[in-house]
Amino acid sequence: MNELDVSVLISVYHKEKPLFFQEALESIATQTQLPRQVVVVKDGPLTESLETTLRNFVDRHSDDFEITIVLVKTLRSLGYALNKGIQYCKAPLVARMDSDDHALPNRLELQTAFFSTHHDVKIVGSVIQEFNTNWENVIDYRVVPTDPNQIKKFAKKRNPLNHMTVMFKKSFVQKIGCYREVIGFEDYDLWLRALQADEKSIANISIPLVAARVVSLQKRRGGLKYIKQNYHARVHFLKGGLIDRQSFCIGVLSAVVVGISPTWLRQFIYNNLLRKGRV
């Protein structure tokens, strides 16, 4: 099997569940075309179960692709951990992967092929399919815009990319400053800066390439902590000229409504009001 000139970048920390982490890693090892390298960033000390999961993965697949383990001595933030990992990525294309999701079998092959035919694109994501326990049992989808004009318009109010699906050109992301310390919204900040630098830089593939766990997504979307992070991030975006005042107000108000809603209502809002379509 020919390997792709891609580095897969995963960050993991001590609260991750070993079974979820194992599934995420194995979904990379069972791709239709394997990557050149997998970079795993340990964001602070891990539990023994997570360490065992990682050691077993290395033992099973060190002959299939290069595996690079990067240690951040104390727990920092996702943006910090990913920036650290990018330094160790050897391939020109970097594929992000969350430590609790599942990459569909042809993810890396399709995204690499997309870059070969869309030379202006620097960052490409996709739709995600959501699941609870089995990635093949789809509960719902998060559909993102594919038209360049719609992506630019969408990005003013909401994140235009599903972070766990993204593959990007390493040189471009480094050129615009990589991830910044915008807690909870490190990726959104990066995409807005990418569009500011080059409005044609972002694209989405209209089919799901990653399955994401619904429980993990819901936890990230709710509560006072989410509301505060959203507000501070959008203040940062506004001051940096990445969004306008109208987009700021709409984004903050939407986050308050979603954040204070009980889980069942939050799910209803996302499924029926905020989602733009189905695959």
TrEMBL record:
Transmembrane domains' residue ranges: none
Residue span, Glycosyltransferase 2-like domain: 7-170
Keyword Transferase: yes
Coiled-coil regions listed in the entry: none
Database matches in InterPro entries: Glyco_trans_2-like, Glycosyltransf_2, Nucleotide-diphossugar_trans
Record's keyword terms, sorted: Glycosyltransferase, Transferase
UniProt-listed Enzyme Commission number(s): 2.4.-.-
MF terms (GO), sorted A to Z: glycosyltransferase activity
Glycosyltransferase as UniProt keyword: yes
Family under the similarity heading: Belongs to the glycosyltransferase 2 family.
Protein name: Glycosyltransferase
